[in-house]
Write a structure and sequence with these properties.
The strands form 3 sheets. This protein has a 7-stranded mixed β-sheet with strand order 3-2-1-4-9-14-13, with helices on both faces. The protein is globular. By secondary structure, the chain is an alpha/beta fold. The chain has 2 domains: 254 residues, 3-Layer(aba) Sandwich (Rossmann fold), CATH 3.40.50; 42 residues, no CATH class. It has 12 helices and 14 strands. Bound molecules: S-adenosyl-L-homocysteine (SAH). The site of S-adenosyl-L-homocysteine has 19 residues, from helix 2. It holds the Pfam family Methyltransf_28. Its EC number is 2.1.1.-. It comes from Pararoseomonas baculiformis. InterPro entries: NDUFAF7 (IPR003788), NDUFAF7_sf (IPR038375), SAM-dependent_MTases_sf (IPR029063).
Length: 321
């Protein structure tokens, strides 16, 4: 399921005002700036390794990282000098957009291809774009749901990567690439040091439900219609990712709601400062910060999760409430 997504991202730039959907870094520069300062503080907690890998998975137009680097260069130039920029991106079109803004980066197809060494990785709305498998409980066994001739069909799935239990009719989703990435990152962070920050949308606890969605022109579309023309996304199972990383030797913090995380990082003060320096458009900065943090907007469904070396102090924003 959702295999059509590689074709979707390869063929277009889906982000921004004219695109199919928008994301936090495209809503306000303050988002990337706050994440840049998060990375800078995390680097000091790591003991300021030099050089250090600064990586992003699924960087879209490169907006988040460009905003992050501007803030880092201003606030912690030592970190800016130590950082080696690595981007993980499969879409040739989006790689070009990233190259225009981040000419010094090195690109990779896969998180597993990042070079060895202490690393800080950022990823916003990356995991939700990876393909999921969907299973449905029928007669005491798991069936896999798949798409055939434009309709959902079911086939027996004795290999379902799920406990052999569940209520009749219950739907479970498994994002195998995300679990593989969490396990591999967990192992490398435990061995080589560093932290990975994932921001995405999904529930705090694993649970049943069908969350597959197609989005086109900012509206829900038919997931079965015109494969490759709409973005397919599914909720991220943060608890499963934390479990996979812990099993590989890493620590996990969160998930916590995005609104709580960004408020703790100072998003509102940054928005107020931007508003004060931008007369006439000031309200837009404050509204953007509210959109990212308000529980009824993006503040609660979106979550932040950190996977890191088990010896690292609690990363900024994840202190106990
Ligand atoms: N982080 C950006 C873009 C989110 S869209 C933002 O917040 O605006 C998802 C991004 O992940 C796109 O850049 C897409 O091309 C990339 N992507 C999707 N599948 C991928 C994969 N398997 N490996 C690497 N990048 C992928």
């Amino acid at each position: 399921m959702a295999r059509a997504n590689a074709a979707y991202y390869a063929g277009r730039d889906p982000l921004g005002a004219a695109g199919d959907f928008t994301t936090a870094p495209e809503i306000t520069q303050a988002f990337g700036e706050c994440l840049g300062l998060w990375a800078a503080v995390t680097w000091t907690l790591m003991g300021r390794p030099d050089p250090v890998i600064l990586a992003e998975a699924g960087p879209g137009r490169g907006t988040l990282m460009a905003d992050a680097l501007r803030a880092i260069t201003q606030m912690m130039p030592d970190f800016a000098r130590a950082a080696r920029l690595h981007l993980v991106e499969t879409s040739p079109l989006l790689r070009e957009a990233q190259r225009a803004r981040l000419p010094d980066a090195i690109w990779h197809e896969d998180v597993a291809a990042l070079p060895a060494g202490p690393a800080i990785l950022l990823a916003n709305e990356f995991l939700d774009a990876l393909p999921i498998r969907q299973f449905i409980r029928r007669g005491g066994a798991w069936m896999e749901r798949f798409v055939a001739d434009g309709a959902f069909a079911e086939r027996p799935a004795p290999d379902a990567p799920l406990p052999d239990a569940g209520e009749e009719g219950e739907i479970r989703e498994v994002n195998e690439p995300a679990r593989t990435i969490a396990a591999a990152l967990g192992a490398r962070l435990a061995a080589q040091g560093g932290a990975a920050l994932f921001i995405d949308y999904g529930p705090a606890e694993s649970g049943p439900g069908d969350s597959l969605q197609a989005i086109r022109n900012r509206e829900a579309a038919d997931p079965l219609g015109d494969p490759g023309a709409a973005d397919l996304t599914a909720h991220v199972d943060f608890a499963a990712l934390a479990r996979a990383a812990r099993a590989a030797g890493a620590a996990a913090h969160g998930p916590i709601p995005q609104g709580v995380f960004l408020a703790r990082l100072g998003l509102h003060s940054r928005a107020a400062a931007l508003a004060a320096s931008d007369p006439g458009r000031g309200a837009r900065h404050v509204e953007a910060a509210a959109r990212l943090t308000a529980p009824e907007a993006m503040g609660r469904l979106f979550k932040a999760l950190v996977l890191c070396h088990p010896g690292l102090s609690t990363p900024p924003g994840f202190e106990a409430a």
